[in-house]
Amino acid sequence: MALIAYDEADAAAFGATRHLGDEALRAWREAIAQHVDLGPGARLLDLGSGTGSWSRALRGWWPRAEVIGVEPSAAMRERAGQPPALPGSAEAIPLDDASVDAVWLSTVVHHIPDLAAAAREVRRVLRPGGPVLIRSAFAGRHAAITLFRYFPEAIAVLDRYPSVADVEGAFAAAGFATVALAPVPQVTASSLRDAVAGLRREAHTPLQLIDDDAYAAGLRRMRQAAESATGPVVDALDLLVLR
Distance between CA atoms of 131 and 106, rounded to whole angstroms? Predict the structure, then answer.
């Protein structure tokens, strides 16, 4: 089930606070490059491209390839810049059959109402042998994500997300098999103090879906911890790769 629909406020908060810095992006480039190498003429689909940060990163990493963003939220597309993302969804991808060499989905699967339909659409547009790369926080895998230490009520929201097994099952029915699953550590903020200062509730689905008292209590815990915390904030999301 889709947990939220991104409106103007959500898109603004996401664009302002959820784009990763260079160090975090390097970690993801290294992880992704183990599974895909896009040469001249290759096409990569950024499915659920949001405000376009991943499309821009992917174009920079593989400048000879074409990166195509597809995003259902008009508010998110308006903030994505150029070239514009195409309107569409995971269940209705506006591309021809066998027209892309790889598919990237970042923090998207929990917003897809019908994973089985999405898997069939990805199978349709992906050329044989191409990888599907899914970056996500999955149900039951919260321990390495900082926010859940301070907002424990949000764990129940995460547990409404698809699990790894849920995603694998939906994609297996469309002919895919898992080839890799690994956490990728990323520097999310230079310090916990900076993480608190930049936190926008609207940019985080689990924080939107807890009540106001739980959010306020978590914010107090996070601010208190930031007074003495040292070092960067390092989180780990999973990279699930299927072919």
Answer: 14
